[in-house]
Amino acid sequence: MTAPPTATTAGDQGPVGYTSPLPTPRPHLGHALASEWTKLTSVRSTMWTLGALVLLVVGIGGTVIVQTRDVDYEQMPFIAPALFGLLVGQLAVMVLGVLTITSEWGTGLVRTTFTAAPDRYRVLTAKYLVFGLTAFLTTAGSVCLVGLTASILRDGPDAGPHPPSEWASGLVGSLYVTLLGVLALAIGALVRHSAGAIAVMLGVVTLPPVIGAVLSIWEAVAPVGRSLLKYNVPVAMMELFGMPTNASDPSSGASMALPGGLNHMVLILLVTGAAVAASYVVVGRRDV
E strand or H helix at 185, and its extent? Predict the structure, then answer.
């Protein structure tokens, strides 16, 4: 037997909803940045990858400084010893870039993230900003530490003049490595798999010089091979850090004119920008 419905008078207000006494501010980018910073600093992978980067750049760079003399820096900038460690340390930056986003899919945390922050573009923007700033400061700090050590120990009369633009070149080289990490983060957002994204980035860094040397043997595809030999990550970093380069065509043995640091920066900006734009489109359309 059910109770008869009661009539609702004109003065009734209906059931009163629960109102939380806690303040509920409107979420904005600052909240997303704080959340991503907490995620980045609370996992061990960040400490291991960035620690490996600093150890490689400073350790190998210090070893190079000890083995060189003042006269060796007559044609070489003080930041050049950092390049040898950075050629390996860049892999740590790329791995961290991939793990920054793929670890959320691997652990299922991405469902909680997008439930708490439904604006996916804001979350992705916060990831790019937090990772990019952290990677750049760590890389630039390591490079500057090596350069400062070289300038103190090897700034003798035989070292020659060293303009302040050398330090600007070190910052540009650090920005190039940071963009490689941002590209890795974008690839991770597209692939959503840690091993797959890391494999893609390893191919991007290591394969162009090898493929370029092979393609330069056959005349039909020799122009493609020469382009790969000119535009690849190791050559770009050597030019940005002011190291002397002497590239030659494998088929003829003739020397090749390299494109210069500005062209390498434009290329990495275009490639990274395209990958980041694709990551926004894909992440916004997927279900999770």
Answer: helix 165-191
Q: Do residues 140 and 171 make contact, with C-beta atoms less than 8 angstroms apart? A: yes
Question: What are the backbone angles phi and psi of residue 248, rounded to the nearest 5°?
Answer: -135, 150
Nearest of 261, 257, 280 to residue 269 by alpha carbon: 261
DSSP 11: T
Q: What confidence tens digit (pLDDT) does each residue in 155-202 have? A: 888 888 899 899 999 999 999 999 999 999 999 999 999 999 999 999
Question: Two tokens at 48?
Answer: 């291991």
Given the structure tokens 């390591």, which residue do they identify? Answer: 142
Distance of CA 263 to the CA centre of its chain: 19
Contact present, 120 and 30 (Cβ < 8 Å): no
Q: Are 40 and 100 in contact (CB under 8 A)?
A: yes
CA dist 226 → 14, 65, 122, 127, 131 (Å): 77, 33, 41, 36, 34
Pair 197, 102: CB distance under 8 Å: yes
d(CA 264, CA 233): 8
Q: Which residues pair with 255 in a beta bridge?
A: 248
Any idea which residue has 């890391």 for tokens? 198
What's the predicted TM-score (pTM) here? 0.88
- Which of 128, 145, 110 is closest to 179 using CA atoms? 128
